[in-house]
Amino acid sequence: xxxxxxxxELERQISRWESWLNADSPKRRLVARxxxxxxxxxxxxxxxxxxYFRLVRSRTPPGQAVDLIATRRPFDDPGVSHPYYRLVxxxxxxxxxxxxxxxxxxxxxxxxxxxxxxPPFSVKALPGYQAQTASNPFITFADLPVRSRYRFMLxxxxxxxxxxxxxxVCRGQQALDVIDDxxxxxxxxxxxxxNTEQSQFLAANSRNLQLPAELESNAPVLRHWxxxxxxxxxxxxxxxxxxxxxxxxxxxxxxRLIWDGDSxxxxxNPNAALTVFRHFDSASVEQGLIGDNPQTxxxxxxxxxxxxxxxxxxxxDVYGNIGHQLRSRLYMDFLRxxxxxxxxxxxxxxSHAAIEHKWYRDAPRWTLDYVAASHLPLGDxxxxxxxxxxxxxxxxxxxxxxxxxVDSALPHSFDLRNIQSDALREMLQRLxxxxxxxxxxxxxxxxxxxxxxxxxPVWLSLLNNSAHKNVAEIFFEDxxxxxxxxxxxxxxxxxxAYPNAFWIVDExxxxxxxxxxxxxxxxADYSALIDRxxxxxxxxxxxxxxxxxxxxxxxxxxxxxxxxxxxxxxSR
Length: 572
Fold this sequence. Notes:
Number of strands: 12
Distance between the termini: 44 Å
Strand order of the largest sheet: 3-2-1-4
Shape: globular
Structural class: alpha/beta
Oligomer: single chain
Radius of gyration: 24 Å
Number of helices: 19
Number of domains: 3
Helix content: 25-40%
Strand content: 5-15%
């Protein structure tokens, strides 16, 4: 059956972007390859038109029918000397669990031109597609300015992180237990990136930054693993030496190391900070800092952000053998620790050690040794005003300072402050204050239809943040649980693609709901709670409630809207 016609305006947009992506100079061809390898999972759209497209490689140039080049990874050999980058309509239904929208408009083209066309660099020879080098972006794209690469990813940081949150790598408990249930993400200020210094450093360490995909998809389970670990250690040692010897004198102190989302330049970017929630066997990432102080926090710079993408998105093969998947999971430990240590480096030494110990209670000795090797020696660049405070207080104050640094750039749509009624807002804040052992009986993600005394229904997301001694091991997660430290986040609106339950609550019932959740002590208690407030999928009202939820989701954000997946609804 032929595809329906696209329409003249969309045809014009497609032609314009395909022309940009297929400029023929070596410089532009390398830029196009970089764009493709980062956007191959994107649902691209033009301006206010929500028709979605995919970026693919084709054997045929613009103006001819697309002859799709199908490969497992975006950097696999295309089998032709000159692949073309083409836009094709997205044919499948838009579902929330895989929907990653990315806007193409005049502002985007202008930014890409500033990043990759205007800077005076040259590309003498195009890189090949051998796995050992194509899997390593620090080799393949060495000719592109480092700051430009970082800004490209940072400009849509939620999308970049969403690549592994919604991509095929994040499937199942073992894939997700490498991250904490609830953490914030900040980014190093790109203005501090020196193109020449960073290019030289990354070139010198490119082999230390090799990634598991260079072994392709069928390597033995643990062969070569020690070489990856040793390479990462050498990279961290070189990074520490660079900071200590050259960079520390010019680095700003404390929170000013962090990107403010360009707020000071008058162009606030809502990707300045992100919140990540794990829902046991799935996860979500949202713009902004949602909730109160999270369990952990990361600071991400360019080398870490690029490796996250090439480890878990571009380089991950869902059809790879257990060796490939295990190596990817184990390597992710390195990257998580690196992000955490960048954050902890802003704390005074005593608080750093105490919080680090809290995050890695009862962790294996090799993990603790690696954590120690990952310390970033910022010295007096840490926030010394936090010295002398109890560690948890210093941690909270540092988070507060970082929040103030980025706050003017961030959206606040999930904040309970958006609840107009003071009385209702206070009741919801009391619900969000429930913590501890009773929460172990709750599902990970609940969507709540709340009926206020006055006005339209309000939809809430209840996120159960399970605490752990550490997340440094693949198996026996239940043995590392700390239910006494569980917390609850209550967000206005919809978070997550796989709800575990639907509840209907009237405003007058909120105190009772809060009391019941705070006193849960058994499965029978939870079953009684669901009998009172839940709408199971066997309930005759379920599908009408589902329709209402989807309409409200679309009203909340028509661009990010996608159908929910009900495969993980509970039957309790």
